[in-house]
Amino acid sequence: MTSEPEARGTVDTADSAWDNARAQLDEVADLMGLAPGVHEILRSPKRALVVSVPFRMDDGTTRVYEGYRVHHNVTRGPAKGGVRYHPAVNLNEVKALAMWMTWKCAIAGIPFGGAKGGISVDVRSHSRSEIERMTRRYASEILPFIGPERDIPAPDMNTDEEIMSWIMDTYSMNTGFSVPGVVTGKPVAIGGSRGRAGATSRGVMYTIFSTLRALNLSIDEVSVAIQGYGKVGGYAAQLLHDAGCRVLAVSDVDGGLYREKGLDPEAINRYKQDSGTVSGFPGAEPITNDELLELDVDVLVPAAVEGVITVKNADNVRAKILCEGANGPVTFEADKILNERGIHVVPDILANSGGVTVSYFEWVQDIQAYFWSDEEVNDRLRLIMEKSYEEVHELAAEKGLSMRQAATWIGVSRVAEAHQMRGLFP
Ligand code: GLU
Description:
Strand 3 (about 80-85), helix 3 (about 90-110) and strand 4 form a beta-alpha-beta unit. The chain has helices spanning about 15-30, 35-40, 90-110, 130-140, 160-175, 200-215, 235-240, 265-275, 290-295, 330-340, 350, 355-370, 375-400, 405-420, and strands spanning about 45-55, 60-75, 80-85, 115-120, 150-155, 225, 245-250, 255-260, 285, 300, 320-325, 345. Helix 6 (about 200-215) packs across helix 7, helix 6 packs across helix 12 (about 355-370) and helix 6 crosses helix 13 (about 375-400). It is globular. The longest helix is centred in the C-terminal third of the chain and has 26 residues, at about 375-400. The chain has about 425 residues and is α/β, with parallel strands linked by helices. The strands form two sheets. A seven-stranded mixed β-sheet has the order 9-8-7-6-10-11-12, with helices on both faces. The chain has a five-stranded mixed β-sheet with strand order 1-2-4-3-5. The protein starts with 16 loop residues before the first helix and ends with a helix. Among the domains are: about 45-175, Leucine Dehydrogenase, chain A, domain 1 (Rossmann fold, 3-Layer(aba) Sandwich); about 200-350, 3-Layer(aba) Sandwich (Rossmann fold). Glutamic acid binds near residues 80, 81, 184 and 355. Glutamic acid (GLU) binds near residues 81, 327, 356 and 359.
């Protein structure tokens, strides 16, 4: 029996990431008067591959998981997007994430289409060598789909630099020479970009600053709560703390921490290195993930999984600004409630585009075999993030749209323009 929504006597009509992604597209297609043919094309992925991933366990037995790679759209350039390892991964989730990548790349003005991939796996139940064998087999199975001109995977939830190295190596061993441009988010030693590891978090920070400027609020003493202490949330906590914000709360899957005077991310990082979690950190009050989302803070950054803000808790969110570090943390219906309540929601496809933007820089550097400094990467990232924010904010103001509607409008219109210019084959 599912529990009844407390706040609004209504349920989310869009209860999965794919329903949400489609509902967002349909709404904006209607608002902008998108040509029905293009709308129909964009409602479905261009191609989707489902693969079986068998691999040897350390004890000699065989395990088989399902893997996916979806290309939503490649009209503006090669498909681009991360690879996710999580038990909740399924074809529909990957389709949603691939669609969001299409809009994200178009909003940032980088010449990629949208892709995503993943394996339905709980990484915590496997050794590192099992993850390596699983990754290499997955890479082999999706080999015909990927390549520097075709589709460039990158890290996402529970995948990292080392996993990207294994994908790059598997592809290169099949080709017979090193192909660094086949993945991004690699170690710098094999063609990775400086600044890629922290790029999504840095982009989230630039987005928060743009929002504060747009709302005439000062950066000093801004209070922040961050859900998720992985690649995005953990580094964002550090960057925002260093920039003068008060990070009052953080969390991971095991639970959260709250300190009214502000947390010290460096101390939390040291604690996490030994314990593997932020939960239990001494010197802060324990809170739940649900409590964190309802804290009275200036900025809330959901940087964990999809669908954490729904019709059930949207009325309880007290932050002024909600900056989506994760993909799809707010459901379609909850988004309406937050907007009605005057909460400034900065959507994922704008707020977390720093990762794919520096992935683009990495791909450009690999192709040119000429590498940039940290300053060059970070400055160019900031320019792109600020420009994208301004464009979205301006359109939202001009047409009376939410930031998500305006961002989706820009993404969809750029992809639609490319479709119109190229024409329908044959
Ligand atoms: N996985 C990240 C995202 O969702 C980055 C993708 C990439 O760099 O290609 O945006």
